TrEMBL record:
UniProt protein name: Putative oxidoreductase
Family (UniProt): Belongs to the short-chain dehydrogenases/reductases (SDR) family.
EC number: 1.-.-.-
The organism's place on the tree of life at top rank: Bacteria
InterPro entries documented for this protein: KR_dom (IPR057326), NAD(P)-bd_dom_sf (IPR036291), SDR_fam (IPR002347)
NCBIfam families: mycolate_SDR
Entries under SUPFAM superfamilies matching the protein: NAD(P)-binding Rossmann-fold domains (SSF51735)
Keyword set, alphabetical order: Oxidoreductase
A Pfam short name: adh_short
GO cellular component terms, A-Z: membrane
Example of a GO MF term: oxidoreductase activity
Length: 271
């Protein structure tokens, strides 16, 4: 089957839709005429985006405020989408931590695992329960180039993203005969096109602007890949370089180098 076309009865479900990649993809799908279900914690932000997209594109936009790190909120979301026809699903919600694993706040680490991995796992099953019998649908899970290799001082994040990467790519092959498209988005660093000097991190200052992938271009690349049922999309030059290096460089030398870089990110985050 082909990539789902807009329908008055169907919805595209996007988690993490209040900012970043999730918001950018929601805006692109809305502009293409897809009805939307926007999921994130910040209801007021989602309402602003929803009202704008509904008025601009004449689509139905539902807001579902939820903390997907919490089992009860995932339960509620799954109950909600069970009453909707989900034609497209983009699992974009995620968080990260930096610094030594044993120094991290355990509640945050647990929430990170639940959000990045468990929620993706459960939502994926729920939407495929609809899509596979229909023989139509498109699923995109947001993993990371960071999930390709061990990264000290980023251990929980790479644990979750390595799982999302291989889980989604495995499903891609399983789902091919069903007609359901399944794509992994595995980005490296992504940001706004312009970041004010006072808001720049040391990574923003270290990496030249031309190497960055913007949220908008990432969304365009992702939707193009979903349409073609590509197994994996890695947007932008920096992400592609990270993908190659993390896949083929010797881990014994790469891991300590990456670990020192992420340790500095942890220092900045906790400053």
């Amino acid at each position: 089957m082909s990539y789902p076309q807009p329908s008055t009865s169907a919805y595209a479900l996007i988690t993490g839709a209040s900012q970043g990649i999730g918001e950018a993809i929601a805006r692109k799908l809305g502009a293409a005429g897809h009805n939307l279900i926007l999921v994130a914690r910040r209801e007021e932000v989602l309402m602003r985006i929803a009202n704008e997209l509904a008025a601009t594109h004449g689509i139905n936009v539902e807001v579902f405020a939820a903390d997907l790190a919490k089992e009860r909120d995932v339960d509620a979301l799954l109950d909600h989408i069970a009453q909707r026809e989900i034609s497209i699903c983009v699992n974009s919600a995620g968080i990260a931590s930096f610094g030594a694993f044993m120094d991290q706040d355990w509640e945050y680490e647990t929430n990170q695992f639940n959000l990045n991995a468990t929620a993706v796992f459960r939502i994926t099953k729920a939407v495929l329960d609809q899509m596979v019998p229909r023989g139509n649908g498109a699923l995109c899970n947001v993993g990371s180039a960071a999930g390709n290799s061990p990264i000290p001082n980023n251990a929980t994040y790479v644990f979750t993203k390595a799982g999302v990467n291989t889980f989604t790519e495995s499903l891609h092959y399983e789902l091919k005969p069903t007609g359901v498209h399944c794509t992994l988005l595995a980005p490296g660093p992504v940001r706004e096109a312009e970041v004010p000097a006072e808001e720049q991190t040391f990574v923003d200052k270290l990496v030249p602007d031309f190497l960055w992938t913007t949220y908008e271009s990432c969304a365009e690349d992702t939707i193009r890949a979903m349409r073609k049922n590509k197994r994996r999309v890695v947007p932008g030059p920096l992400s592609k370089a990270m993908d190659v290096v993390s896949t083929y460089a010797p881990r014994g030398s790469l891991a300590p180098l990456l670990g020192s870089f992420y340790a500095k990110m942890g220092e900045e985050q906790n400053a």
